[in-house]
Here is the input.
Amino acid sequence: RTDIGERQNIIDRFTSKTGSALLALNPKAAGTGLNITAANHVIHYNLEWNPATEDQASARAYRRGQERPVTIHRLFLTGTVEETINERLERKREIADSAVVGVTGKDSDYQDIMNALRISPRGQD
Here is the structure.
């Protein structure tokens, strides 16, 4: 565990680098209180069950002062449970976006929300 002051020192060193640099962060540790506008590529190598956790970590690069386009990469192996997790993440994100932005009111939207609420923590329907 890295305390907040040391975490900021690490970010400052990363920001001051010229050329290419890599900064590896845990999504939960990176999810709050950091501005990492020196990064323009965010790579998620460990998928989270909650898309908001991933989105919050990605948002560290999308801060005021960011002058370059930011690209988000999500690494997973196809044909594995990781692919299933990725599909669930995308579906959860769509459902959450629909709830916030608004939906067309189709019956299938309601059913999708109800199905998402039935997803167990172990990923079994």
